[in-house]
Amino acid sequence: MTAVVLGPVVLAANAVDTFVQTFFRGAALGSLYALLALSFVLIFKATQTVNFAEGAMALAGTWFLSMVFVDWDVPGRWLGGPTWLHWCLAVVLAAGMTAAIGLVVERLTIRPLIGQPHFTMAMVTLGLEVVITIIAVDAVHLTPRVLAVPWGTDSFRIGGAIVAWSYLAAIVMAGAAFLWTWRFFKTRAGVAMRATAFDQEAALAQGINVGRVFAISWGVGAAIAALSGIFASMAPWGPSGVASRDGAFFVFRALPAVVLGGLDSVVGALVGGLIIGFAEVFAGQYLADHASILGYGYQQVVPYVVMLIGLLIRPYGMFGTEEVRRV
Amino acid sequence: MRGRPNLYTSYEAETKLFPTATKKVLLGLFLVVLVLMPFDLWVVDQIPVVRFLGDSVWLRLVNRMLIFTIGALGLHILSGLAGQLSLGHAFFGGVGAYTAVLVGGKSSANLWGWGLPMWVWLPAAGVVAAAVGIAVAPTAVRVRGLYLGIVTLGLIFIGLHLSRVFPEIAGPGDLGRKWPRLEMRLWKEESAFIDFSRDGHWLWFDVTKHQKTYFLMLGLVLLMAWFAVNLGRTRTGRALAAIRDRDIAAEIMGVPEYRYKTTAFAISSFYAGVSGALFASFVGQIPPEQWSLRASVTFLAALLIGGMGRISGVFMGCFFVVMSHRFVEEIVDWAKHQAEGDGLFSPVFDLVISRGSGDGGLISVAETALGYPLPASALDEIIYGGLIIVFLLFEPLGMYGIWIKVRNYWKGWPFSY
User: Fold this and answer.
1) Which of A8, A144, A278, A301 has the most CB atoms around its CB within 10 Å?
2) Helix (H/G/I), strand (E/B), else coil: A162
3) Is A211 exposed, middle or buried, given 0-12, 13-18 or 19+ CB atoms closer than 10 A?
4) Minimum-distance CB partner of A301 among B138, B161, B372
5) Distance between CA atoms of residues A319 and A265, nearest Å
6) Is the peptide bond before B180 cis (omega within 30 degrees of 0)?
């Protein structure tokens, strides 16, 4: 299925260290899932469609970072100062470029279809997935690329537990994104987005520029997808990470998080992402003795199993709005 | 009253399989052409331009297309008729394929297989897939729309994992294992009485294995399409359409939603299972990765490009989805020859085609085509993905919609109404 095996089983000095290490790994993976889920949710709230091209966008964002920072050395050729600052600027630039893709996609393919059945829009994004992946992988050379992450494979210690800096970075990134979203929903544009999500026609009648709301949500959604793609491609998460054709499927493992939390709930994205992340990592760590029965790589299926159980209990996710259907 | 189009005086007349004599005759003619298709007929060769397929590469592609059509017909029942978005259709194809190899495959030290004949494994593939479909239904029926799409997407990943858990069935590693051949036996005797996978002799004709396979697949497709069309005319079909159009209204009218959705899942999985089993044994050996999201998307694309909810649309869509890759290859090949020749337009083609690292152009035909300019194989993927989008944006009814427009234009010609 995927070449990305997220972290091998850790063997630390004692049980507590193992737990702490596993906890951080779970929190980091959960943060990445939550980030992706946030991106899905923002796009779903505005345009009522699941963006199946998210994986391709994450892939494109990761390529952009590699191109901007490694190949072109973009902020570095004009700016002095430390490399890590250049890297951060390059990340912002890559996210911005992916946001541009999101804007173009929204304007050309999604907006003409507003009001069509969700079936149609979901298929359009699946078509986009094919196109963007091919362009990102084949047109930009199918060679392994480096992201030149400033902290590389370094890690720090908490007691006896070893925690990679990348894990902490992922957690911080997700925290920042959710904080930003929380703040954003209080601004004028954010309120407009919430109103549009609630009722498009009513929002339009109130003078809200619904088209701009769509554009914002797709742009932001694509940028967040790029960020999660970048942070999922760092050292402990497999050598190629998202930046490979298989890696795009990493994103599909975040879909259970969205469904578990509810397709239209930001809180749900956070909680769902963390639950799925913890479930996957803890199952990978503590059920490893039974791997011969469960099969190699069983932890990658855990998200889907959790999702299926969750859906049996609550068909619209934990925080999702139940669909009110008019008769 | 007779002879007026669109005038029906009874419900029976309206639900007739072939409402007009013209349709009957045309379909009959079409069937004759289909049967004669794989032969090199002397008569046909005398007509300029027109050629039947004969035993060519195209016939192999047609076989592939027919197998694919069976699966697409299944998805048509689930998505086109009952309106349920399923991204897990390939999973059921996989279930069918692995049932086939378990029942019909040969066993060895680390592989399971009972070596039973085709008349056992082919129906078994369908029935087991349908049973799995029924088992999945309790979860799938509870969720709607995109949630259903994501749940069924989960099936694919669970299926891929199961194929790794049971290497005894799926075969070791990424190569897969040998599938039973397409051949009819009574039981486990030595020689098959109809062998679709070897050249041979039927009546007075020499037929190759591909021609034999063609007739097997054609028969199966016609049978399954006939069933699918008829299903739409029965109580079950009307119930499914009612659920598709408005599920609450359907339930108020006394259509048990749960039961009919489960039925739709079962029937569509049956089709998928049969198609998967046939495909695997047609190819001979395939890895588990074959049953991926990509395959599911291809099924959906066939439905959407052809035209959602129409049997004729399913056929057109399958033709397009399976053949388009080959067409793109042929066109690129032709353009390459044009560019190399010294015709009037060869400079134009030379601009498009890139023949090496120094040569500019959009499409690469170099041996080791990697990266930009794109090789033809990547190009047709882009065209395929792009066409899905274009059809959805501009012609939601797909090729069927185009056909209706063309037909109506000529129907009213020279008037535009």
Assistant:
1) A301
2) strand
3) middle
4) B161
5) 6
6) no
Cβ–Cβ below 8 Å for B392 and A124: yes
Tens of pLDDT, residues B256-291: 999 999 999 999 999 999 999 999 999 988 888 888
Task: Count how many residues are written for chain A.
Answer: 327
What is the average per-residue pLDDT within B70-87? 92
Q: Is B388 on the interface with A (CB under 8 A)?
A: yes
Give the chain B residue nearest A130 (alpha carbons): B385
Whole-angstrom Cα distance, residue A228 to residue A38? 10
Q: Is the pLDDT of residue A1 over 50?
A: no
Answer yes or no: do A127 and B139 touch at CB < 8 A: no
| pLDDT at residue A139, rounded to an integer | 59
Q: What is the pLDDT of residue A3?
A: 38
Tokens of A287: 């059920």
Average pLDDT over residues B168-175: 77
CA distance A16 to A161: 8
Element spanning A89, H or E: helix A83-105
pLDDT at B417: 63
- DSSP letters of B205-251? EEE-HHHHHHHHHHHHHHHHHHHHHHHHHSHHHHHHHHHHH-HHHHH
Give, as one character, the DSSP assignment of residue A70.
I
Mean of pLDDT values over B24-30: 90
Q: Which of residues 89-128 of A touch B (CB under 8 A)?
A: 109, 112-113, 116, 118-120, 122-124, 126-128
Residue A138: per-residue pLDDT = 66
Structure confidence by residue, pLDDT tens digits, A37-83: 999 999 998 888 889 888 888 888 888 888 888 878 788 788 777 88
Put simply, whether A313 touches B (Cβ < 8 Å) is no
Structure tokens at A44: 């779903």
B384 touches chain A (CB under 8 A): yes
Interior/surface letters B199-218, b for 16+ CB within 10 angstroms, e for the rest: eeeeeeeebebbbbbbebbb
Contact A327 B249 (CB under 8 A): yes
Length of chain B: 417
A161: helix, strand or coil: strand
The closest of B71, B75, B61, B91 to B152, measured between CA atoms, is B91
- Per the CB < 8 Å rule, is A142 touching B304? no
Residue with tokens 């969720």: B143
d(CA B7, CA A88): 71
- Reply yes or no on whether the pLDDT at A105 is more than 70: yes
List pLDDT tens digits, range A106-140: 999 988 888 787 778 888 898 898 888 877 766 55
Q: Nearest by CB to A131, which of B138, B249, B386?
A: B386
Half-sphere exposure of B309 (CA within 13 A, CB side): 13
Residue A303 Cα, gap to closest chain B Cα (Å): 9
Closest approach of A23 to chain B, Cα-based (Å): 25
Radius of gyration of chain A (CA): 20
**Rounded to a whole number, what is the distance in Å from the CA of B218 to chain A's nearest CA?**
29
The whole-number pLDDT of residue A240 equals 45
The angle formed by the CA atoms of residues B16, B22 and B26, to the nearest 5 degrees, is: 100
Contact A300 B150 (CB under 8 A): no
Distance CA B233, CA B384 (A): 33
> Residue A210 and residue A201: Cα distance in Å, rounded?
9
Minimal-distance CA residue of chain A relative to B144:
A315
* Integer angstrom CA distances of residue A53 from A39, A60, A126: 11, 10, 6
Residues of A in contact with B374 (CB under 8 A): 134, 138-139
Cα torsion angle, A230, A276, A51, B372, sign = positive
Quick check: A134 and B385 CB within 8 A?
Answer: yes
